[in-house]
Structures are given as structure tokens and as C-alpha cells.
Queue: 2 jobs
Job 1
Amino acid sequence: MTPPRLLWLLLAALPLLLCPPRADAATARLLVAIGANVGDPDDAVLSFADDDAARVRQLFVELGGVRADRSYLVVDQPASVVRQRLAEVTGRIAELRAAGDDAVLIVYVSAHAKGGVLHLGGTHLPLAELRDSARQAGARLSVLLVDACESGTLARRKGGSAGPEFAVSLEQIPLHGQVVISSSGPGESSEEWDSLKGSLFTHHLLTGLRGDADVEDDGRVSLAEAYAYAYRRTVAGAAGAGQHPAYAWELAGTGEFLLTEPRAARSALVFPAALAGRYVVASQPRPDVVAEVEKAPGRPLRLAVPPGRYLLRKRAGASTGLLELELPYGGERQVREEELTWRRYTEVALKGGHVELRGSALLGLVRMESAAVRGTGTRLVGGLGYRHSWGPWWALGTLGFSQASYPGVALDIRERALGAGVAVGYRWLEWALVPYVGLGVELTILEQQLRREREEEIEDTFDVPPLPPRRTLGMGLGPIAGVEVPLPGRAFALVQGQLLLRYLPSTEQPLLRPAGLVSVGAGWRF
């Protein structure tokens, strides 16, 4: 290479050497979830549009790469508030672009609609305006999911009109432009089901995004997979004249757009390949249907769900298999057919209802309590208990025993106590750690055996018998507060405190005295 040419190449490369390479632009995802149960005055009030919007927001924050501070939930607000939120999102996208990043915008809406116009709390927002606002927000890609609805009873006619259908494969979704998906085809109605506590289309869409739509088994769900899944399940489940979701797009480029990544979920239910049938997963204690899958044999399924408690149901003829599942801290839980408890279908609540499978529990308890007799120190009490629960409500019966010794006036005193208690209360089952409160009453039989100093000498010298034991019956009443800690399987631990106002007949202290108790224990549900 000649020196002039080499010098020219060095000069051309100088800016690259002096300037560090720019990192690839980050992609930020933003979400606007809109739900409106109330439409125009002549629209029947929907029941679940706001809940559907909240579920969509939760899922995309959990699995869809949307940060919580970049997600907007707009519930039962007029069109002016929706426009304001879209304007805020447009401003945030402009900030991201100024920082060198690009953005993807997802807009979900569930509400009444008629003639291509959303009915939002007595105000109107044309669907075309919503589509244009999403397109003009400045995002590299915008996805608009429209579940427009009117009203009904068991299967509500939701009246939203969808965009046109196209005979085009969605195997590859370009990454630049806009995609619009509607819950029904032209001239069709959508459905809202009481048994699902939500829209039929949104229900199946969310199940697919949790992993059931992952036909490639790569732990990710693309827009193509989600649409194909929601279309198939909606068409199969729709009543009446039928419901056919539709889509339209204006896209350029190549590639596919991933909506969710179930493989990154903190917790999941795993269905082995051999399982087959329809499984319904409902949350506990609030009986919301989280997912409903049609499990085919030969293909394992990992269904991403948030940490929590669930009831799994499988229908088989006149019987229903039930299984309580706990994922309070995350992790995976494998579904095993042999663990199902079978009940007659007529004995089981409707889909999503709360069913108590193991309301009974045996407990072992150890507690530290202030002494019944003043000035004799604390007591360590061991006991057993039986608890029965009805959903969040519970009742507990306990038996406890303690013994202690302490000096009196020229006496050695040995004390034994046998106690029986009953308590009732309420548990808050929404969290991993289960707080509870209650009210308890206790009966205690207290016996003191008295031995004088130089007892043998006194008996021999004065020919007197030993001092007779003293027995008394006491009672206590007071509030309880504690927390239950789930353990693997059916086990759990608990820590609780109790304040008692104790009544104990005595000539040496007041009849009524306060007492404090701290208990720890472990239990096994059956």
C-alpha cells in the first residue's frame, strides 16, 4: 500500500479512534391499559372491563418487559382523561428518543363501543382517534388491542366492531409501524362471561401470554403466537353467532415482536408432557380465573403465574379434580394427576369459586407466658391444637400443659397447670405471609403441691400429714394477633401474641390480672 493511500485511510479512521463506539439504543416499553364499565346512559353497566385492564397491566409488568412506572392504568375515566394520558405517554416517548433510545407502545382498551366510537363514562372517543394517537406517539412500534364491548348477562354482547380481516400469515411480524388487534370481526359481537369474571377474548389472550401460546417452546410468546392462540380459543368458546378476532397492520422491516417472556417469570406451574385435559387455575382466596388451558398430551407446559395461592380444577365427566397449589415465594410447582382430590361436580363451586380442600390442621405449640401467680416468673407451655378453616375464617381448639417450681415462705411449691382454649378469627390470605387476628378464651386448672422445709422431720415429730394440694379453676379472655408462614407441602409455621385478662381465685393477689403470651408452632393441613 502506498504511503499517500495509507495516510488517507488513517485520516478517515481518526474520528472512529477518537470517539468511543455508541452503545446500541435501548428499547423501552410503555403501556396504557384502559377499562370502562360505564358507557352511555343507555348502555348496561359492564362488570369486568376495569378488572381486565388491571390484569393486562399486571401481566405486562410481570412478563412483558414494561416497568411499573411506564405503565398507565386508566379505569372508568372520561375521554378527556384518556387523551391526557396518551399525551403524557407521547411526552415520555419524546424524552426517550432524545436520550437515544427507542420505544414500543402497547395500548389496551375494554369498554362499550358502537359505530366505531368508544363509550367512556358518558363521553365518546372514536377508535380511529385512538389508533391515530397511538401511531403518532413517536414509538417505533405501537400495538393496539381493542376489546370493545356492550352488555349482557351470562354472555354479554359487547358490540365492538373490529378492523378488517386479512388473509396474511403472521409468522413474522415486522418491527416498525402499527398492529391493531380487535376482539371480533366485522359485524360481530364480543362476549363478557360472568364465570370468567372477564372478557372471553382477553381471558384467552392473557392465558396465551402466560405461556400456553408458546408453540415454539422457547419460553417466549410472540405477537403472532398470541393472536393465533386467542383467535382459536375465542372462536371455539364463543356462543351464539360466534366471535372471530381480527387484526390489521401497517408495518415495515422484518422480524417478530415478542409480547411476553414466560421463561423469566419468578414462579410457574409446570404441566408434564403426559397430562391432558382442560385445567382451570383460579386464585385464592379471591376466586379469579388466572388461566384456562387445554393441555394436549406429549407437550410439556410451563405456565407463568404470580406468587400466590391457587386452586387447580380439572373436569372429567360428572366429577371434578381439585388441587390446592401454593407458590408464596415463587419457584416452580409441578402438577401431578395423582394429587388431585376428586369431588362430584355438583359439590364444587362454579368456575373460579373458592373450594376448601384441606380445612383441617393439627398444630404443635410452644408458648412463653406470664405466670398466673404473681412473682413466680414466666412459664414455658407445650400444647397441641386442632384448627378448622372456612376460607379466611378459622376456629382453633388447644390443650396445654406446664409445670414449674418456686420457693414460698418456708415452703417449696410445685405447680402444674392444664389448660384448654378456644379461639376464632380471620386470616388475610392475599400475601405470602398470612396475618391473622382473633379472640380467645382459656380455662386453666392450677394445682400447687406444698412441701415444707424439713418436711419429714415435721411429719415424724408432730405426727401430721403432708400439706394438701391446692387446686383452683381460672379463666382468661383476650385478643390474638399473629402471622402464618407457609412451608413446603402442607406444612406451615406460625408466630402469635395474645393479651389475656385472667381471672384466678386467690387470697394473695387480685382476682383479675393481665397476662401476656407469645407462641410459636408448626402445623400440618389435612
Job 2
Amino acid sequence: MIAKINQHKNQITWISGTLIIAAILSKLFHLSGLSNSFLIIATVIAIVPIAIKAWQAMIMRTFSIELLVFIAVIGAVFIQEYTESAVVTFLFLLGDYLEARTLEKTRSSLKELVDMAPQEAILLHADGSREEIDIDLVEEGNRLVVLPGGKIPVDGRIVKGHALINEAAITGESIPANKAENDRVYSGSILDNGYIEIIAEKVGEDTTFAKIIELVEEAQESKSSAERFLDRFANYYTPAVVILSLFVFAFTRDLHLAITFLVIACPGALVIGAPVSAVAGIGNGAKNGVLIKGGDIMEKFAKVDTLVFDKTGTLTKGKPTVTDFHNLTSMPTRKLLALIAKAETISEHHLGQTIVKEAEKNGIDLSRFQITESEAIKGNGITATVDGYSIVAGNRKLMNGKGIKINSGASLYAIEREKAGNTAIFIGINGELAAIISIADQIRDDAKAALADMRANGVKRIIMLTGDNRHTAEAVANELGMDEFHAELLPNEKVEYVKKLKDQGAIVAMAGDGINDAPAIATADIGLAMGEGGTDVSMETADVVLMADKLSQYAHAFALSKATIRNMRQNIFIALAVVVILLLGVLADQVHLAGGMFIHEGSVLVVILNAMRLIGFKTKIASEAGKTDGRQREKLVA
């Protein structure tokens, strides 16, 4: 019965409104008896869903707004103020309806994401036939076909074909990505142009798209300290209002005044003001490829005054290339590269993987070589035995630790390469220095503008911590105008530095790639991960995840957090100001029950509409990036 009443609450609202109109018309024709009958029926019908919610709250030992309205309406009926009892119940239900509708709009970004979720997939059988199946039936290892205009149903790897793929649902990036064989694709992306066959690697709830939806849903339920305070405040405020209204009646002997006081003091706008701002802000972030994990994270992020960055893959593009291979032995360069690349297959580091890719690009079949022993030494490099050769690959610290001498000529050569913006990787074979590999990475195109934007929004210090050599770090730091940089750090040393900053009173946000920098990200007040497509580690360890690997998204997220907290404060001020003004008006006999209720419900809508401004929030740098993306998209289409 209760479920049916709640299900038809909107219809109850409109019936109540119709009966009030009928009562007004009856009064115009001097049919007072009929008019009162319509008003009483309207009150009885509309009070039912209000009474149900009040009773449910009482069972949970909380004092709700509905309880205040219920008491006030019963009192109005008792003193035969049928017009006010009917109007108050109707306005309350109407306000509830409009509030629900506008809240739906603030959650529009999440709804858009859910609507984008693929429902079907085209399964390719071994005999070449195709079958359209439900998305829930897809299993890991299935070979799937994606046709032009189709949604990619799972996370997977392309095994045939090439295409332009719109990954906006994942990254917020409007420019289609050009994908070919061996490239990864993500569920929820749309194939703009081309044809591909993929092998399913992650299906169902394990896909990146499903995790994004889950994270945004959780974030919108998570509460900031302001929201938690207002929840506690409402539990004390509501019974306090009942007691105050009894005092008003005791002193004035005016039941009508006491009832009016009771209704007008309802904290509706106050209770909803902060949550609706948080939901709208988180929704804006999701729409723009930024996952902010809750109102409490948003609140803390807004207070950040110190930014700490890793270099490779964060300030730089994370797509380094080998710029020089300096062979110091008589061994053929191709064989030497093959041995080193095979050893580097154990490394997850960007630089190690770059050497592996360089060997593959040169047509070297690494499967022909065998590793018998291996060790990845965090922050320094790797050691391995490949086909009987003892290989050490890494930085100067590692060479010194393994007793491999670097002569003055090799040292000068490495320094020259580093000053030119390269990272020098030293290679030792059987205890002797064998090669120096130069690897360069480009600074992100939007890095300088993004950092300037964040400085303008209140960041006081920007620091770079990197395991790379001092010369390369200095070149990047100077280019980006860093306040300070620290090079050749191990992961635990980055953690210690972040702790030191916090001990000094700084509120620190640490940005890294979500894997090597996970400890430092977890230590900072706000951990931010950059990982294209959102790696599992980045999505789990970080407070904020940038899905498109763009620093302009970081600047947007920081500005958005400040705008959201500012919006929360505006809403709280509006709600308190309206309640205070109305109560003073009630005590001065200038505000009456129906009119006060109308203004009260209006204040609820005002705070919701104010919060909805956040849905369209856009920073200058994000707008500029959007224009650039638009021009690039036009070129691709052309």
C-alpha cells in the first residue's frame, strides 16, 4: 500500500492542486460549504504521503521536515484554516516533485554515462559466421566484430583492422583516436569510421567503462564534511523548532502563529544545498573525463596549495623514444640491443618498455632469447641473465652498486645527452660498461598553460620529484617554471618528501602514473593519477583520476573543486538567510502560512538551480582545449 502511494505521489500532487482550484472557483460563486469540502479533501489526500515519510523517519529515530509539516497541517485543520492546510500540503508535494526533477538534471552526466553502456556485441565464430549476442554473454577470449557506428562492447585488443574511435565516454576527449592492430580499445567507445575485430580481455563489471560508472555512483553518494554536519544539524534542528513553536504558542496563545513558525522554520533548502552542489560538481567532472571520488575529496582538493608531480608520463607525454644507441663494445649493435631488450621485458617502467619497443621496431624476435635470472630494482633499473650474458641496465647508482666503472669519456657523453633533454640509460655486460642508450620524452603540450591556470587559482608551490637524472629534470623544470625539483629519487624517497611537505603545513596533491608512484600518491592529501583509459591501479589508489592523460583536465578538476565548494557555501547562505528573514516576518505578523510556504519551497528551487550552474562549468583552459580539439576533429573528418 505504502509503495503504491509513493509510486503515485505525482498524481496525488496534481489531484490536490485541482481540488484547490475547484475550491477557489466555488468560493467565487459563494459556495463556501462546497469550497471547504474541496479544501478538506485536498488536505486529506495530500497529507497521506507526507504522513508516511514522517512515520518512517520516526521509526528510524530521526526528526524529518515531513514531521514538521504534518504537525502544522493537523494544527491548521484544528483551527479550521482549511485554505492554508490544503495549500501547505500541495506546495510541499509540488516542491518535492520539482526538487526531484531538478536533481535528476544534476545527475544527468551519470545518466548519460549509463545510457552509453553497450547492450549487445557481435560474436565472430571460428567458421567466420557472426552472431549478435547480449553483452552479458560475452566471455574473455571471445573474438568480436565492431562495425562503423557501433559501440565497443568490452575492453580488448585489436587483432584485425583499423578505425577512428571516439573515446569521449572514457576520456572526455572529443578527437577520435586512430587505432590499429595490437592497440587497446575500451568498452563504451564508439567506432566512428573503419572496421575492427577484437579479442575480449575484460568483460562485464571488469571493464573500464563499468568501473567509471561505479566510481561516479559511489562518489555522488559520498558526503563532504559540510554535508555530514548538515545531516547532524537537521537531527537537532527539527526537534528544536518544535520546542520553539511551543514556546511561541505559550507566550502568544496564538496557535496560528505557532503553526506558521513551525512550517517556515523547515530547513529544506539548508539540508539539500550542499549535496546537490556536490552531485553537480562530480557530474561535471565525469562529463569532462575527470573522476573525483566524492564530496569529501572535492572539499579537500579545493584547499590544496602545493602540487607535486612525477615527470615521466605526468609532465611529459609518457611516450619516450630511443634517440641514440652508443655502442661501446665490439659486439654487433643489433645483438646488443636484442640482449638488452630481452632483459628489459621484466620491467614495467616507461624507459624499459621503450627499449623493448625499439627492438621490436627493428624486427628483432625477442622470443629467441632466454632469461634465466632477473630482478627489477625500483628506481634504479634491472639486472638479468640473458643467454648466459650478465646484464645490468639502469642509472649511475646501479652501475656504482654493481661495480661497473664509467670512464670520463662515457660520463661526459652521458651528461651532454642529458643536458639536451635525454635520459641516459647505462648498460653493463659481464661487469663492463657496454652501451649508453639515450631516450627522450616530450613535455605535454598543455602542461605550461595548465600549471599557470592552477597558480592563478591559488596554488603556491609546484614541485617535481623524479627518479630521472638531474640534468634532464632541470631542463624540464626550467621549461615549465617549477618552483623546485628533486631528481634521482627512489619511490620511498618521494614518499618521504611528500611527508616532509605535509609536516610543514602544506596541503599536497601528488600526481603520478598510478603504478610506480602509488606510495607517494597514497601519502599525499590528494592523490591524482594519470593513466590513459584508467589503469586498475590508478582508479583504485588515487582520489582523482584523469582519464585522458591531459594536464588541462587537472586544471579543470582543481578549478571545479573550488567552484563546487564556493557553490555549497552560497547555497548554505541562501538557505539560512531565507529562514531567518521568514521567521522575523512571521514574528512581525508580516508573513503568513501559505505565503511563507511558497517562499520556502522557492528557496529550495533556488539552491538547486544555483547548483545546476556547475553542470556547465568550464575553465578557460578547458574551453581553449575544446576549440583546439574541434579544429583537429574537423581536419580528421575532412
